[in-house]
Design brief:
The complex is a heterodimer of chains A (about 350) and B (about 550). Chain A is about 40% helix and about 20% strand. Chain A is built from twelve helices and 13 strands. Chain B has about 550 residues and is an alpha+beta fold. The chains are: A alpha+beta (about 350), B alpha+beta (about 550).
């Protein structure tokens, strides 16, 4: 087989870019661009949307689904009907095996990843990557599930199926009906990104523009021990680093007492106490913060937009290979630059007294 | 028939003790115990200006203070807005405060201008030629003048004083700078206001006397100085200069927030003790001599300070620093533009009423008028009532003397009514209270000090204590004394040119004794609670304004 681009089943992040969004989805296309820029992202590959389309054809699922749907009105309105359809379609997809012809490229790509990181059964995140040609779905991509800490070829197959099935939740179905889209069509195909999980020693978020002040001269990073959830969900007051965008040096570091962290366990992520001796220790070294900032700056220059990022520091690797940007997206709600007067007013209205001596 | 009006609404009753968690005794302005007439002005007409001033600025978490009377003594508590009012108050506060932050000195000066306009009609008035009816109308005008003037005063107070409170807090957080650090006071001095110009005028009169070699005339009893000066050409020239000075600065009574003590405008002899004090220091006015150097030093230190502030915070901290300085400008300027003048005009009015009543035989002595309320004065002035108030005045004076006797060391007027633990929560939501009230920061016994303060002016000095309680004892203060007193106010400012150190029972970080001590470079410890009880005149003291401690040394 010598597939043309549209017939490629599995594409590594390094091989794709923004022009491939229709095939690999927005998320993977983004990761591909970052690879090209030399920004360290956890490596991985995409099971293309074409595979999803062919899956429906090769298995008889397409026919089965169409038959099943024929029992319903063209536009069902009842929640029970959405649930019934979702239940059937999702079960059907998840109980089908991935056709043999696709199993091989997927398992090869996965073992390539294991070799690359020198880890047997390397833990990966398996995520839906919305396909741009289905705009409705693209904007719905956030609804699709992500599966973390997946290990072994069989588990990867299983979770790829789950990602395909996640395009048929009751919400997705209801959305399509409301927008006069067919409940099922091959256009509803999902690319699936399989990405090396960072074993986070520390992680967090960042902004290439201060979201509170609108200041564009600094990159602000916030981080904690463990995975980034504790920062995103505000479980702790995170460490905060300000890196000058010009010199890429840390100009201000506020180290907080971080009593909790989120870590992976067999049951998924759990919250646990940070050992006392680590609570007041900076969760990342200045060189690591500066490396994250450098990557964020490169990404911002490429997109030409202020970005918010997610970053992680890997336990298993050495600096600088241990620094990863795991996400970069344009900042949506951003404060305009606040004037000095407004900043004083913010304090005047929030501070309590008395003044200490 | 009283229509149930006993007690008066400005007295603290059981209702007030139940309704508010704590009342704090506040000697600033309200001690020595006010006369009945000024009680009516202050508690009856003027403290309402506190709430109106606060409403105008619209501080979100306070309505200002209630200031009420308990056994002749002033106590205050915070008036608390409903939670439901706070969002709308905050919205308006942001608008008001934004204007102040953008032009803090302009804000102060705009209120000074309103005060000047309010005072304008009252300078050149001949009260002696007024008919009884005109005089009664003038009494009504005085009520209006005081009500309006205090409203303007508190617009400025609530507008200006949160700025240094915030600056002090954030300077500590960003750079570790403490309010008792000498650097702090150097950063926030404002250096120029009409009160200092008034002091300079006094110093200039002292120096003119020295230069003209007529200073020995000033050593005569106060009421003989002018007569002696008239004997020489140089003396006559000096009198001319003094009159020029009094025309601008004469509208000032010896005591703040009272009518009972005389003012410079009515008798130059009252000015003489101040001039004599400056003879002792050779007619020098410290602030003026050092002004350029101090301003330059201030601006250099401000740069150094701002360099320590994290870069992203620097621009607005600089703005806040300027706003904090403006509060000092406000404090002393407002005394000169508004407070001194309205009090002088009030005294002039009631002295004239007293004179008419003495003519009628309604009173035995002009000064008895301060024992009356305005409705009684209006009635007597209009009706020429012989013998009307002689007994009443005697009874009231006895009651007044009784309250005064409680001031220094009676359990009947404790420092706090209610729960002392409620003081900190009360201060918490009012940045303006926190600058005028403070609590001792540690236990004096544990640090071997005689007393410990809650705020102060930096520096360490040793000297002999002179304990005084009110204006009548100013004459006891000599060059190089450490003054120990309940509290100071703007009328006390001339003393700061000669004392070496200061200890007060009351006061917070932006109270009169602290502001003025900082600007005169005098170590001070205030908010000690009971310094006047623990220290005796003649004690040798070491004042540590950095640690806020006062030690007795042998």
């Amino acid at each position: 087989m010598n597939p043309g681009k549209t017939e490629r089943w599995v594409v590594s992040f390094q091989e794709c870019g923004k022009d491939d969004a229709g095939l690999v989805g927005g998320k993977s296309a983004n990761l591909g661009e970052m690879c090209k820029l030399g920004i360290p992202v956890p490596l991985g590959f995409t099971v293309t949307s074409e595979v999803n389309k062919r899956f429906f054809e090769i298995t008889s699922n397409e026919k089965k689904i169409e038959e099943f749907l024929s029992k319903f009105p063209e536009k069902p309105t009842a929640i029970d009907e959405f649930n019934e359809i979702a239940n059937y379609v999702q079960n059907l997809i998840e109980s089908t095996e991935i056709p043999v012809e696709f199993q091989k490229p997927i398992s090869e790509a996965y073992s390539g990843l294991c070799d690359r990181y020198k880890v047997k059964d390397v833990p990966v995140a398996v995520r839906s990557s919305g396909v741009a040609e289905d705009m409705a779905m693209a904007s719905f991509a956030g609804q699709y599930d992500s599966y973390l800490n997946v290990q072994g070829t069989e588990e990867v197959f299983k979770n790829v199926l789950k990602c395909w099935a996640s395009a048929f939740t009751p919400r997705c179905i209801s959305y399509r009906i409301k927008n006069n889209l067919p409940i099922f069509s091959k256009a509803v195909s999902v690319a699936v990104a399989v990405q090396k999980m960072v074993r986070s020693r520390a992680s967090g978020v960042g902004f290439t523009v201060n979201p509170n002040t609108g200041n564009k001269t600094k990159i602000v990073l916030e981080g904690n021990w463990g995975v980034g959830e504790s920062v995103v969900q505000g479980i702790v007051e995170p460490d905060r680093f300000e890196v000058d965008k010009e010199t890429l040096r840390v100009v201000n570091a506020e180290i907080r007492c971080k009593q909790k962290q989120v870590v992976f366990s067999e049951k998924g992520t759990i919250e646990q106490d940070v050992p006392a001796e680590k609570q007041k220790t900076p969760c990342i070294a200045h060189c690591e913060a500066e490396m994250v900032a450098k990557c964020a700056k490169m990404a911002e220059e490429y997109y030409g937009l202020p970005l918010d990022i997610e970053w992680a520091i890997d336990t298993d690797l050495e600096f600088p290979q241990n620094v990863f940007l795991v996400q970069a997206r344009p900042v949506t709600a951003m404060a305009t630059e606040r004037s000095a007067t407004e900043k004083i007013l913010d304090f005047l209205c929030t501070r309590t007294f008395p003044v200490s001596h | 028939m009283h229509y149930g009006r006993t007690p008066m609404c400005w007295e603290i009753t059981d209702y007030d003790l139940e309704h508010y968690p704590v009342w704090v005794r506040t000697p600033a302005h309200t001690e020595p115990v006010m006369t009945p007439l000024y009680c009516e002005f202050w508690y009856g007409y003027m403290t309402d200006g506190i709430r109106r001033g606060c409403e105008y600025i619209s501080l979100p978490t306070t309505l200002g203070y209630y200031w009420k009377l308990y056994k002749g003594h002033g106590y205050l508590t915070r008036a608390i807005p409903l939670d439901s009012e706070i969002p709308a108050r905050e919205k308006r506060y942001r608008e008001m405060a934004a204007k102040i932050i953008d032009d803090p000195f302009g804000f102060c000066d705009s209120i000074f201008a309103k005060m000047d306009k309010l005072m304008e009609p009252y300078y050149d008035m001949n009260l002696e030629s007024m008919t009884r009816g005109e005089l009664i109308e003038h009494v009504h005008d005085m009520i209006y003048l005081h009500t309006k003037a205090i409203y303007l005063y508190f617009q400025g107070w609530f507008g200006a004083t949160p700025m240094p409170a915030l600056f002090q807090q954030l300077a500590g957080e960003f750079t570790g700078l403490k309010a008792t650090d000498p650097l702090y006071s150097k950063l926030t001095i404002s250096m120029d206001n009409p009160l200092y110009r008034s002091n300079r005028g006094i110093a200039d009169l002292a120096r003119l006397a020295i230069d003209s070699k007529i200073e020995k005339n000033l050593m005569l009893p106060d009421n003989e100085v002018v007569k002696a000066m008239e004997q020489s050409a140089a003396g006559k020239k000096w009198i001319e200069e003094m009159k020029k000075f009094l025309k601008v600065h004469g509208w000032k009574l010896l005591r703040m927030y009272e009518f009972v003590e005389p003012g410079w405008y009515e008798d130059p002899a009252i000015l003489m003790p101040d001039i004599k004090r400056y003879i002792e220091v050779g007619g020098a006015h410290k602030i003026d001599e050092d002004r350029d150097a101090m301003t330059k030093e201030r601006d250099e230190l401000s740069k150094e300070f701002l360099a320590k502030v994290p870069e992203g915070q620097r621009d607005w901290m600089e703005k806040l620093l300027v706003a904090a300085r403006a509060a000092n400008h406000w404090s002393e300027g407002a005394a000169w533009h508004g407070e001194f003048k309205r009090m002088a005009f009030g005294r002039r009015c009631f002295i004239e009423c007293g004179k008419r009543m003495v003519q009628d035989g309604a009173l035995n002595d002009v000064n008895d008028v301060f024992m009356l309320f305005t409705d009684e004065i209006i009635s007597a002035v209009g009706n020429r009532e012989k013998g009307r108030y002689v007994q009443l005045v005697q009874d009231r004076r006895k009651e007044w003397e009784g309250y005064k006797a409680l001031t220094y060391g009676s359990d009947e007027v404790p420092p706090v009514l209610g729960d002392p633990n409620a003081i900190m929560p009360m201060l918490k939501f009012d940045p303006t209270l926190t600058v005028s009230i403070s609590m001792p920061i540690e236990d004096p016994e544990k640090v071997g000090a005689v007393c410990v303060g809650g705020a102060g002016s930096p520096g360490v000095v040793e000297g002999i204590a002179k304990v005084i309680f009110d204006e009548s004892q100013w004459k006891e203060i000599q060059k190089g004394d450490i003054m120990v007193c309940p509290m100071t106010s703007a009328t006390w400012t001339p003393l700061f040119g000669i004392i070496k150190g200061l200890v007060c029972n009351s006061g917070g970080s932006l109270s009169h004794p602290v502001i003025v001590s900082r600007e005169y470079g005098i170590p001070a410890v205030v908010g000690t609670g009971d310094a006047t009880m623990k220290i005796k005149t003649g004690d040798k003291l070491r004042i540590d304004g950095n640690l806020l401690r006062v030690y007795k040394i042998s």
